[in-house]
Write a structure and sequence with these properties.
Rossmann fold; flat; alpha/beta; Four Helix Bundle (Hemerythrin (Met), subunit A); binds guanosine-5'-triphosphate; binds magnesium ion; 6-stranded mixed sheet
């Protein structure tokens, strides 16, 4: 298909040494040539770089390097020209303006990657992995994004699709050649075990996806406790910086304080909260309300208790409030004593102020969420929430197919559910997906990507 020629600055706003402007589409070479004084671009070999000047017809704008890439071996699978100019927003914006004046259109967010997808160079999972690469903050995030970019998720999903098709083929054969009266029973005997095998495969993938999702999205970790137990001290010790104010005054933290921590390749999205207590102070009350909301939205609670004094009513309330959440109960200020014991409940003793027990705490967090085996071996892990949702849909359709088959429902009805399973899988790779989904998905990309 032929699309119009698009342009965007690919580097972020702000002062930098160099900026890169990307142009993609059939007219790329011609449009850039209009404002480029240098060699004739159309005559140059693909994947070469050329020195020259950009001008606006009257004046020189910048001294640049122009790289030319001919379709189809380019990022978008279209003709692409990249202009490397000096840094600073002004120059880059002037060049983009000139390119637009000569017929290019300003690209939408993610439109270059969208073209790569529409032109068949990437499947949807490959395109999504590019956004994950750009956003990666830990080595594990990078690892799963690269595996997805290399087509591992595509391969996994296509494998599952083929298994569904094999089952459908069994049905088709028997529908086409219904030589025997008991054909339906026979077919069910063949397909029921196959559906079961496929379902258990998908269940295993979904189980492992927990680890993938945690790695991709990070763990929203909320530090809670009554005032003065050392929540902010814990945040600071974990971050190795004085991010939150720490004082001996109860009620020091009023608002949520957010920070990110790379814990051996696992991203913790930490939130320090206002200590919970009864208070008449309006500001503190609002802070406490926010704490309660943060608890509700957390993946993990770090509930901090104070080992230097006995448990209070408020501690017990907080223990009850967080009971159903994944949580780690921490006994802080272990340097001052160990007055608390919780019976069967596991307590991780630390001193936030003196940096004692912090590594053990970090290990507890990892143990709770990450299956290391999946990362060390050559596994394909699904990590993207959209993919997980589609796999759940697939599983549901297979469950329905299985139920029908077991109840000897007419075989063509069973086939409808199997086809549904097949098409849910196809939505993961973008083999069948609607325009709205594609637009929303790519709009989350940054400009120039
Ligand atoms: N001895 C000792 N003191 C600590 C420890 N951790 C924190 N503290 C002290 O406890 C006091 C309160 O610490 P914060 O970190 O501000 O406590 P908080 O839970 O954030 O308190 P609020 O924000 O008021 O809810 C400060 O004086 C800290 O220095 C520890 O491990 N040992
Ligand atoms: Mg605090």
């Amino acid at each position: 298909m032929i699309y119009d020629t698009i342009v965007a600055k690919t580097t972020a706003n702000g002062t930098s040494a160099i900026n890169l402007i990307r142009v993609s589409g059939d007219e790329s070479f011609n449009i850039v040539q209009e404002i480029f004084k240098g060699p004739k671009l159309i005559k140059q070999k693909s994947h070469t770089v050329h020195y020259g000047f950009i001008h606006d017809g009257k004046n020189q704008i910048d001294e640049v390097l122009v790289s030319v890439f001919r379709a189809p071996k380019t990022f978008t699978a279209e003709d692409v020209v990249e202009i490397t100019c000096h840094g600073g927003n002004f120059i880059a914006n002037e060049i983009v303006k000139q390119l637009i004046a000569h017929g290019a259109r300003l690209a939408e967010n993610g439109e270059f990657t969208k073209r790569a997808y529409l032109n068949g160079r990437l499947d949807l999972t490959g395109a999504e992995s590019i956004m994950d690469l750009v956003n990666a903050k830990t080595s594990n995030q990078l690892k799963i994004a690269n595996s997805q970019l290399n087509g591992d998720v595509l391969e996994l999903v296509e494998g599952l699709q083929n298994e569904v098709l094999d089952i459908v083929a069994n049905i088709e054969v028997n529908i086409d050649y219904p030589e025997y009266d008991d054909v339906i029973e026979m077919t069910n005997d063949i397909i029921i075990p196959n559906i079961k095998i496929l379902m258990s495969k998908i269940e295993k993938i979904l189980e492992e996806a927990n680890t993938g999702q945690v790695i991709r999205d990070g763990i929203k970790t909320v530090i809670v406790g009554k005032p003065n137990v050392g929540k902010s001290s814990l945040l600071n010790t974990l971050l190795k910086e004085d991010k939150a104010i720490v004082t001996e005054i109860s009620g020091t933290t009023r608002d949520l304080i957010e920070a990110e921590l790379n814990l051996d390749g696992v991203l913790l999205k930490l939130i320090d909260t206002a200590g919970i207590r009864m208070t008449e102070d309006l500001v503190e009350k609002i802070g406490i309300d926010k704490t309660k909301k943060a608890i509700a939205g957390a993946d993990l609670i770090l509930l901090v208790l104070d080992q230097s004094s006995n448990l209070t009513e408020m501690d017990l309330e907080l223990l009850a409030l967080t009971k159903d959440k994944p949580r780690i109960i921490i006994g802080n200020k272990i340097d001052l004593g160990s007055k608390i014991s919780l019976g069967d409940e596991h307590l991780v003793n630390i001193s936030a102020k003196n940096n004692i027990g912090i590594d053990a705490l970090a290990n507890e967090v990892k143990k709770l969420f990450i299956d290391d085996k999946l990362l060390s071996e050559d596994y394909t892990i699904i990590s993207n929430t959209r993919h997980i949702g589609k796999l759940e849909e697939t599983k549901l359709a297979l469950t329905q197919a299985l139920e029908s088959a077991m109840n000897q429902v007419p075989i063509d009805m069973v086939e409808i559910d199997l086809r549904k399973a097949w098409s849910s899988l196809g939505e993961i790779t973008g083999e069948n997906s609607n325009d709205d989904l594609i637009s929303t998905l790519f709009s989350k990309f940054c400009l120039g990507k």
